[in-house]
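[Meeting: bench + compute handoff]

Bench side (C.D.) handed over the final construct sequence. Compute side (W.E.) agreed to return the predicted structure before the next meeting so the bench team could plan truncations. Sequence as handed over:
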Amino acid sequence: MTIAEFDDPRLAAIYDTVNTHEPGEQPRFVLDLVARLGIDRATIVDIGCGTGLITRDLARRGHDVIGVDPSAEMIAVGRARPFGDQVRWIVGAVADVGAVDADLAIMTSHVAQFFVDDGAWDRALGAAHRALRPGGVLGFESRNPGDRAWERWTPAEVTAVVDPVAGPIDWWTEVHDVRDGVVRFANHYRFEATGEVLVSEAALRFRTRDELTSSLDRAGFDIERIDGDWSGGPADETSPEHVVVARRR
């Protein structure tokens, strides 16, 4: 069965299991950004929040958090999980958040790359700009095309996980096309308990550092730093990530 990425409630339910964060990666990055704000109760917008793994943790810590995602299935999972009742959830686009004078806006799990079209990306940045107060911070990450990560996404690289409800799951990625900075691929999920395989189609845009810099400037952001990995390494031609921190003008 072929479906859009995580539009199926069965895939939304296992999202946290198949998309775990390594220690010291995105959750730590977000918490560091929040700590630097120096605000006990910050207003934070999580763009493309998914099931709200980070969103709910920020709410648990006492922040006023808005989680926005186009997938009703993903947000339904987030609502039902611990501290989900302390988040303001929006099923829709970042433009639906409006001007909330947020202190921080975040995009994690490579959400920035799901805005494949440049126009859509510009509109998302514009909406993030409107949601933030003057001087508010935007933090996100986007894979560096120089690292050519898609070449490692092959059916031979199978990841085995165990979901607390669905049981053992094998999953892998198959790339279909790489063109003009856009990688089109399918994720395959095989459920051992039933033998069912779900195939989820998706596309990601790999933007260069120059492309990210230009788009942020157009949207009214000043870049504070771009790191090449989660440890703060340099963003060079082959670094795995562009980890971006920018401030609203």
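W.E. noted at the follow-up: The longest strand covers residues 167-179. C.D. will use this when planning the next construct.
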